[in-house]
Amino acid sequence: MDVEILAFECETETDVVCTPPFVNELFETNDVFEIFGVGVNRAMLLMFVAAAIVILILWLAFRKQNIVPTKFGAAVESIVTFIKDDVALGIIGPDGLKYFPYLLSIFLFILVGNLFELTPGVNFPITSRMAIPAFLALATWVIFVFEGFRVQGLGYLGHIVWPKDVPVAIRPLVGVIEFVSIFLVRPFSLAVRLFANLVAGHVMLTLLLVTGYVYVAGFSNATFNGVFGIAWWTLALAIFLFEVVVSAIQAYIFTLLSAVYIQTSVHAEH
């Protein structure tokens, strides 16, 4: 049993399932190579691969303006149109066009990164590393906070800490809640939502596949092993198909919430 992606050593001849000496070693990966003395691990490498795939997809789809687009071009164009019309313009309004490139970029990047979980030979969603969802959430936070102050000036902060649409008696309390929610909770919840869903799916698939392997390779009763091994692998296949949907939904939710946060910043009435 090959465990190259793990940072710790395992006695594969005696251990059916490897147990790390420390739990944190389950979340570490060895460096694939070094650049100028800086180690590049698997997560970092796949992050750049995901970005390259997004660029390649858009380039292949739109490099030629054909009267009748190819099936691939039509599929990509439908995704681009959906993000533009339903998310950027539909949520933010006419001003949403300027945020469309960012929203499209994060949607495609997250979608590709999520689908790495289901890619043979990779089986590792980059969004299951908290640093990546956290960085994307921070980018969204910087954009909607910056745009809020740019469009509304100091009134942006005033609308938050002193909301005029609630009774005066509870405005201080609501203002504190809104301030904490917008400036602290939003980026944290945005990152954790994506991270937690992808970790859960990744762990579930891993457990089912490893359990099936244990039944097949770890016991002596061939009939018992085969029946339960196939049962676990069949369940893993069902979860595999479910994770395809989850990957797309989580990319959409992250993009949608980013648009909603930007919309509430640039429109004072909301």
Q: How would you describe this structure in keywords?
A:
two-stranded antiparallel sheet; 270 residues; disordered N terminus; 7 helices; mainly alpha; globular
What is the element layout, followed by pairings?
Elements: E1 31-35, E2 38-41, H1 42-62, H2 71-92, H3 100-115, H4 131-152, H5 155-161, H6 171-217, H7 222-266
Helix pairs in contact: 1-2, 1-3, 2-3, 2-7, 3-7, 4-6, 4-7, 5-6, 6-7
Structure description:
A hairpin with a 2-residue loop joins strand 1 (31-35) and strand 2. The protein is 67% helix and 3% strand. The chain has 7 helices and 2 strands. It starts with 30 loop residues before the first strand and ends with a helix. Helix 1 (42-62) crosses helix 2 (71-92), helix 3 runs antiparallel to helix 7 (222-266) and helix 4 (131-152) runs parallel beside helix 7 (222-266). By secondary structure, the chain is mainly alpha-helical. The chain has one domain (23-266).
